[in-house]
UniProtKB/TrEMBL annotation:
Single Gene Ontology MF annotation: transferase activity
This protein's record includes keyword Transferase: yes
Keywords: Transferase
Name this polypeptide is given: Acetyltransferase (Isoleucine patch superfamily)
Domain (Sugar 3,4-ketoisomerase QdtA cupin): residue spans on this chain: 1-129
Organism per entry: Anaerovirgula multivorans
Keyword Transferase: yes
Source organism superkingdom: Bacteria
Classification via InterPro entries: Hexapep (IPR001451), QdtA_cupin_dom (IPR008894), RmlC-like_jellyroll (IPR014710), RmlC_Cupin_sf (IPR011051), Trans_hexapeptide_repeat (IPR050179), Trimer_LpxA-like_sf (IPR011004)
């Protein structure tokens, strides 16, 4: 995480002033992309993200604006108003741009092409990643695994013939079994189990304490064509404590609720509510389940925990299963 103000050369005479910027000489990277912001409406704030690998130089080539920088521990505000001055922002630095003057033009020089998988747009996830990077100890990586990411939490184990791409984020105490693949735009929380034969594609976000059974399948494109890619892959979210059975298929763009249970071989085609069980093709609602894994009794109590389930009161006890399923949707 690095921030630095660069003062570029000013070459001037009676005709005016010229400021040259040469890649890998005046700035510490090759320039792959240039864009600029202008006409920003009053009181608007831009940014609200960090990058995993991208490096940028911000130059206010007209007018002025302010930049809030946050490394997870300390916040700094820098005002940009000098045309020969550039603000260098490295990876894992949260930024927000605001207080634009009416005539402001903010130019950005970037070290790479646009890649949505490089963005961290959720502040809480940003803080989690920083915490995990600081505690990245006792990670086990099998000699026959390919792990390109440095965003691996402590005590996580990654077994043979697994491949983790460079921008993936994996939390603490996870177990990533043999013959798995984890793409770039993937975030996996703490205490997650990923069994063998699971491929996790761009757009999948997995919360803490999730179990993914062997050969479970994720998709991220509803209408795939060879060599044709959408601007952004659909996002699939697996919430805390959910379990996905062996050979289940999760169709792109759906959310699996907290502690929900997806049966083996099920095909999930819609959002799944918290604390519910679904199986079949297509998956259908089959009842309620406790966080411990026991099916709830008719009074919404867990036979193992002997506690009243939080779903009680949301759906009437006397309604038939068709009505329950309709409300669950």
């Amino acid at each position: 995480m690095e921030v630095k103000l660069f003062n570029f050369k000013e070459i001037g005479d009676k005709r005016g002033t010229l400021t040259p910027i040469e890649a890998s000489k005046d700035i510490p990277f090759e320039i792959r992309r240039v864009y600029y912001m202008y006409g920003t409406v009053e009181n608007a704030r831009r940014g609200y993200h960090a990058h995993k690998a991208l490096k940028q130089i911000l130059i206010c080539i007209n007018g002025s604006c302010k930049v809030l920088l946050d490394d997870g521990k300390e916040k700094t505000i820098i005002e940009l108003s000098k045309r020969h001055q550039g603000l260098y922002i490295g990876e894992y630095m949260w930024r927000e741009m605001y207080d634009f003057s009416k005539d402001a033009v903010l130019m950005v020089l970037a070290s790479d092409y646009y890649d949505e998988t490089d963005y961290i747009r959720d502040y809480e996830i940003f803080l989690t990643i920083l915490k995990d990077n600081c505690q990245n100890i006792d990670v086990f990586i099998h000699p026959k695994a390919i792990v390109e990411s440095s965003n691996i939490g402590s005590k996580t184990k990654i077994w043979a013939y697994s491949h983790v791409l460079s921008k993936a984020v994996i939390g603490k105490n996870c177990n990533i079994c043999d013959h798995t693949f984890i793409e770039n735009d993937v975030i996996i929380g703490d205490n997650v189990t990923v069994k063998s034969g699971v491929y996790i594609w761009d757009g999948v976000k997995i919360s803490n304490n999730v179990f993914i059974g062997p050969n479970a399948t994720f998709t991220n494109d509803s209408r795939p064509r060879s060599k044709q890619y959408p601007e952004k892959f659909k996002e699939t979210i697996i919430k805390e404590g959910a379990s996905i059975g062996a050979n289940a298929t999760i169709v792109a763009g759906n959310t699996i609720g907290k502690y929900a249970l997806i049966g083996a071989g099920a095909v999930v085609t819609k959002n799944i509510p918290d604390y519910t069980m679904w199986y079949g093709n297509p998956a259908k609602f089959k009842g309620y389940i406790c966080s411990c894994g026991e099916q709830l009794e008719s009074d919404f109590r867990c036979p193992r925990c002997k506690v009243e389930h939080p779903i009680k009161g949301d759906i009437g006890e006397n309604e038939n299963i068709c009505e329950i399923e309709r409300k669950a949707q």
